[in-house]
Write a structure and sequence with these properties.
By secondary structure, the protein is an all-beta fold. The protein is 0% helix and 60% strand.
Length: 208
């Protein structure tokens, strides 16, 4: 067995039958027993006629076809699936096949999801940044950026809307806290896109 390999399946829309395949082979001089193949999102098609333990004679190899997302729902965005191949090879008792790819669709996230400005004097400006990341397979059109209450916090240089965040790119958000009176303040900045993405970042500060 080869100890480790990676297969990039590209952008897919599960469930996908016969999405990809890989080969296992016996390069030794005695029979090799593939006892089981363990995966989560990937599965061997029922019509593959593969029964385990799978016995490979010296020099023999067999193709292992894979369905993806047949039994479990996969979320939009990039994914990594680890497939474990267990056998009675004393040198390599376990081999790993890693599937990587992208589930097509719109997906965005904000990092961090919360900012604590801590304790600051009144009339003191403090700025922190957050990232709105497009981790889907299509461009996102931001059509709304709003504060829930709109007190004590502002978004510096707010982009003109609608604003396009291309796939694989990030919009950096600079948030300013400026309190004129002592107290505890909190708010939430909400970001929405035409594609139906809605995320928020919470903020808080104590002014003294």
């Amino acid at each position: 067995l080869q100890k480790q390999m990676t297969i990039n399946v590209g952008t897919i829309q599960p469930p996908v039958e016969n999405a990809t395949s890989f080969f296992v082979g016996n390069v030794g001089d005695i029979s090799l027993n593939i006892t089981t193949i363990i995966a989560y999102y990937a599965s061997i098609p029922p019509n593959s006629n593969l029964a385990f333990p799978l016995v490979l004679n010296p020099g023999q190899q067999v193709e292992i076809p894979l369905d993806i997302g047949i039994y479990y729902v996969m979320m939009t965005g990039s994914f990594t699936e680890t497939i474990r191949i267990l056998c009675d090879d004393p040198v390599t008792p376990e081999a790993i096949v890693t599937l990587v790819g992208m589930i097509g669709g719109a997906k965005g996230r904000i990092k961090p999801e919360f900012i604590d400005f801590s304790t600051i004097p009144v009339n003191t400006s403090i700025r922190r940044t957050a990232d709105f990341e497009n981790i889907g397979s299509i461009d996102l059109q931001i059509d709304k950026i709003v504060w829930r209450s709109g007190n004590e916090f502002t978004l510096v240089n707010s982009p003109a809307l609608p604003y396009t965040v291309h796939r694989g790119t990030t919009l950096i958000l600079e948030i300013e806290s400026l309190s004129t009176l002592p107290g505890y303040y909190s708010d939430q900045l909400m970001i929405s896109t035409i594609e139906g993405i809605s995320v928020g970042i919470g903020v808080k500060v104590r002014s003294i």
